[in-house]
Design a protein that fits this description.
single chain; 276 residues; alpha/beta; Rossmann fold; 7-stranded parallel beta sheet; 10 helices; 16% strand
């Protein structure tokens, strides 16, 4: 059911690759809620993904851009503002990648060039997006910017590797830039800490299936899926959340507030009893 929450609003969405992508679901929901969209991803994603299908479905324009490249981002914002006829109302940053995770390197033996790449793609790109948006005065007053994070920014989760460091930096950028942009333009900036979700990027994390099972047993409401995350993000783009900024908002079924659940305890009891 649509509520016209974004009727008349315009937004830029980073990171939609295929139907598994949270950004894909956000784009679909934003379109349903009345928004006009501009979609972007890295040039390689255009070759490997299916974003053209999403663009057709949501009647959106596409523009390839490397979010770590300043010139690419400047051209992207110019194109978006030309398309929209001026400023726009929201941005979704749904970008994350770790070469160390992809190569299966452990956190205590990472490649530091890969590590810098992880930080650049997964965190610094967010700062670059915000910096260029501000310099170009691309966002309307009371616009909303959301980036996707994960609880590993606060807690150690085995296998999440250097992505945890990147998510911690991402959340810090939202707070630091949120103050500046809030004072100047009333632009609000938040991160959403989502349940573990099977996306193309998430599937590369070591032990993902076990992590999904564990978090689902721990969460009173169970894991939040990509479509549910999209619904939540839409509320942050809407005018209903005008005074919410500089927050890391947990969308994880209650996992982040749990210590031990009955379901998890019973599972551990079963495993323990099987041990010789």
């Amino acid at each position: 059911m649509a509520y016209n929450l974004l009727k008349g609003k315009k937004g830029l969405i980073f990171g939609a690759l295929n139907e598994k992508s949270i950004a894909w679901k956000v784009a679909e929901k934003a379109h349903e809620e009345g928004a006009e969209l501009f979609l972007t991803n890295a040039p390689a994603a255009f070759r490997l993904g299916e974003v053209n299908v999403l663009a057709e479905k949501t009647k959106s324009d596409l523009y390839p851009a490397d979010a770590t490249n300043i010139k690419d981002l400047e051209s992207l914002f110019d194109a978006a503002m030309l398309k929209f006829g001026g400023k726009f109302d929201f941005i979704l940053h749904s970008i994350g990648m770790s070469p160390n995770v992809r190569k299966g390197l452990s956190y205590n033996d990472i490649n530091y060039e890969y590590y810098l790449k992880t930080l650049d793609v997964s965190a610094l790109s967010f700062h670059k997006v915000l910096q260029i948006a501000r310099k170009k005065d691309a966002l309307n007053d009371w616009a909303s910017v959301v980036a996707l994070s994960y609880v590993a920014a606060q807690r150690t989760l085995f296998g999440y590797n250097d992505m945890a460091d990147a998510k911690a930096a991402l959340e810090s950028i939202a707070r630091s830039f949120g103050y500046i942009y809030g004072i100047e333009k009333k632009v609000r900036i938040n991160t959403v800490s989502q349940s573990p979700t099977i996306t193309t990027a998430g599937s590369g994390v070591k032990g993902m299936e076990s992590l999904l099972d564990f978090s689902n047993r721990m969460s009173p409401l169970g894991n939040a899926d990509a479509e549910e995350c999209a619904n939540y993000v839409i509320t942050l783009f809407s005018d209903l959340t005008r005074k919410v900024t500089m927050q890391n908002l947990f969308h994880d079924g209650g996992f982040s507030s749990m210590g031990m659940s009955e379901a998890a305890l019973k599972q551990y009891d079963k495993s323990f009893k099987k041990c010789p």
